[in-house]
Amino acid sequence: MVATAAASAFFPVGAPATSSATSAKASMMPDNLDARGIKPKPASSSGLQVKANAHASPKINGSKVSTDTLKGEDTLTSSPAPRTFINQLPDWSMFLAAITTIFLAAEKQWTNLDWKPRRPDMLADPFGIGRFMQDGLIFRQHFAIRSYEIGADRTASIETLMNHLQETALNHVRSAGLLGDGFGATPEMSRRDLIWVVTRMQVLVDRYPAWGDIVEVETWVGASGKNGMRREWLVRDSQTGEILTRATSVWVMMNKRTRRLSKIPEEVRGEIGPYFMEDVAIVEEDSRKVQKLNENTADSVRRGLTPRWSDLDVNQHVNNVKYIGWILESAPGSILESHELSCMTLEYRRECGKDSVLQSMTAVSGGGSAAGGSPESSVECDHLLQLESGPEVVRGRTEWRPKSAKDSRSILEMPAESS
Question: From the candidates 171, 172, 315, 381, which is the catalytic residue?
């Protein structure tokens, strides 16, 4: 019945007639044609021949049909199906099996990676921003130098490097699960309205990265006396491993409401103590006293500096990196053009807020054309950032080295043939 239904879909078949009509119609056809007028194909001599038994003709829907008719229908049924869009599609099951195998292999490889820290009480980089080293005591993060982070020398600015140091420090605290609701404060510090404030920072820059470079920043903490914490940074070129920048800093606690310094509570010490490393500072401390300037001893003064809203951090005081930009506002232009900053020591005296008005003073203490020396010699400067009402905010000392001929080109310069 299946063969008949399939054949009838392509060749119309009339309703069944009486046996006499069928016999009469069959007698009018030639002997070599079947009941539908189709000439059957002769059987091959080499093929297997099956002798049909002399049984009565089979019936389909109550009507007798001849054996030749069934043979013709079987021949049509065994012919290959016509080429359509559906039967030309690839075997998708093989494709899906290959994808499943790849994903299973990748998942197994990721599971085998030993990237988690050994401390069970510490989150393992939940934000995908870095990783812990040395049993979770050192935090490492990578940064790509963006086009908006470079200056006229085609290298990253000192503010860019300082922002990378600050970001790595905060991510270190957050990834360790110690971040409360303050700016780098632990949960116990937040309960007591305590925040961290930096009192001293020293930075040595061996080389500034260029646009497109990827830098690797490592940071760790240690104790500094009874009531302070020391934080260290090491910046490398991620491709070559070359050390680019070294920095160290000292931090103390301050009450957020009273704005007074505070001792480290034992509960807070219990939070941060397990992460302290017993090592020496990565930068040798400059024990020289930073000189205090005034308008008579300064070579240049820049007045009327006011913070913008974007200069404030979550604790409602000016971000530490902003102070560096204000200090350099009063540096002589001749030094900025011919030299680059190689060393910086900052002593933070007090904070300032959104309504503060400041002035920046710089005195060239030796070397360089601004001090009557050679442009090819190093330069040292003393700095003071203070409120115009009198109180000091930051004292600083900077050292500058001559730029190379390649680095002294402006970013806007173009080869003569291209212009």
Answer: 315
